Amino acid sequence: MTIEEIKNSLKNGPNDKGYYGDFGGRYAPEILMPNLIELEDAFEQAINDKSFIDEFDYYLKDYVGRPNPLYFAEQLTKKIGGAKIYLKSDHLNHLGAHKINNSLFQILLAKYMGKTKIYCETGAGAHLIATAACGARFNFPVIGYMGKDDIFLQSTNVLKAKLFGAEVVECVDGTGEKGVLKDACTSVLKAWSSDPKAFYCCGSAIGPHPFPKIVQYAQSIIGKEIKKQILEKENRLPDAIVACIGGGSNLIGCIHDFLDDKEVALYGVEAEHSSALTNGSIGIMQGFKSFMLQSNDGSATLDTKSLASGINFYSCGPEHSYLKSIGRVNYTYATDEEAFSAFQLLCKTEGILPAFEPSFAIAQAIKIAKEMDSDKIVVINICGRGDKDIDTAERMLGDKLGK
Amino acid sequence: MINLENRISKIFKNLKSENKKAFISFTTAGYPDEDTSLEIIKSVADSGANIHEISFPHAEAQADGPIIQLANIESIKNGINFEKVINIAKKSREYNQDIGLVMMGYLNNIFIYGIDKFAKEVSGIIDAVICVDLPEDVIEERLLKEALKKENIALIKLVTPTTSDERIQKLVKDADGFIYSVNVAGITGVKSAQIDMVNSQISRIKKYTDLPVVSGFGIKTEEDVKVFSKSNADGIVIGSGIVEKIQEVSKIETNKSKIADFVKDFCSKLIINLNS
User: Fold this and answer.
1) Do A29 and B133 touch (CB under 8 A)?
2) ipTM value of the model?
3) Catalytic one among B33, B39, B64, B127?
């Protein structure tokens, strides 16, 4: 790379104030500022410490089970009749989702910093169980914040987290009646403010700087593996990479290593009723500036809903807002119905049970692949497996499930 | 530019000459409803409060505990918005020209409204702004500070138990109005403040600035006020304590002037306890 290319690389991340272009920043109450600065310094130190990185790599391999396969979905490809479709298999990680890449990284960072207690938030519960598991492995008490509605929808994840020894705190909004991921995010920031010596393990590429950067760093293993594996299999880069986005950790992890490879088209797929990048406006909440679904005067988020709790979020990570603003990534959305039929299609064609979250990506990838020639390549990240969603699937299918 | 003396510095100067502390009240605009919240502010002013913080509600208020959070959500549900809050501030100023008026809340409302437009709109109405999620290293901090300065409005800086001396020095450098010393690590209305810790934090701040220092978070009751009347703060802020009273009384009372009178009586008692 030339100096000019390095300077202009989209992989350089935020500036020293945590901004990606106009987005991101550190809009935190003063009480959290010393913590955030301490975390930023520790992160920079850790990623330049070979023994820290070696430990992360060791556990990624032997605990998480990486690298996971880049699988050629031959049956699905035939069925769609367009580009070759590859599936990146983050659903095969320990605990069945990409979230563990980040939880592992941050728990090791907490250990590196000498912290003794972990807080986390969660939507679908994937980040909760991953953090709870790593907390168990490295002897940290973990307290997870989860929306009331999500606790109901994702009860098996709550159970798993408790088996790993985590405490799960139910969160609601100010009315006390309902609670989803954003309520968990606000609650965990309050908990951390009240207990600033603890470590906050943020589950997505959101929040005040340096969280978006840390999560991107930890999740970028996905894209690095994709690049290596596709070069081995096809001797060239893919034409498109597609992943779902709520907060955006799985998507940024998939695409970060490809940001400068302009020949690779990148797609982020939101849920229709939480499509901040497609239908939102710029705002500042929960510590960062990004596109968000908000009321006209910015006092509140709009209600969102999605079949997939994990991407049911009113906003998105600031790096995504930046990548949208410069046109590098195509952000779009899929409906619940499209996602649910994609979910069933992958079950039937490949014998793979995806979570509802990546089903939104599958739905969009099918549309893209169909329009492409058969010598083209599309990669979809299956960022989680669908065990957590089978009760809902059963309810939705009813008699159609068959005998 | 003629730099008129800010109302707030006058208030503190007068109090100092009488050896008194400032009583700073806080209520949520739009709670329990728009009209009543205005009546409450008027009655708080009548009670003799020196400064009043008009909180513009936010649903994801990161620094607020359950009492203020509920008020935030209820008032948003009842249709309050930022423009209406500005209107409440204007009417409050029409009613009383002496009380220091502060608008307090989260940056997003001001950001969406427009920083310069906001500063012009509240010029001559309010004396200071407190933004909970606006540390000094975000772009809007400088923009807002400069816009407000042109209108002779202070942007108040907060110091918390986690703020190092080094950070305090940086924060107070171009601070204006007063310094808000946050007594507890956490959210409003939950933990109780400890006077020793409060005093030592205020002493730390006073090492680096001559601005008045007010103390808030964790002071709720008449008893608390008695205790903190002996602190080394130049003023104390009561927020959750007042909002909780409004919550209690508005459950059993719908007549807005009766609700306002009740709040006035409560504040009057607190003020007596503060400066007795």
Assistant:
1) yes
2) 0.94
3) B64
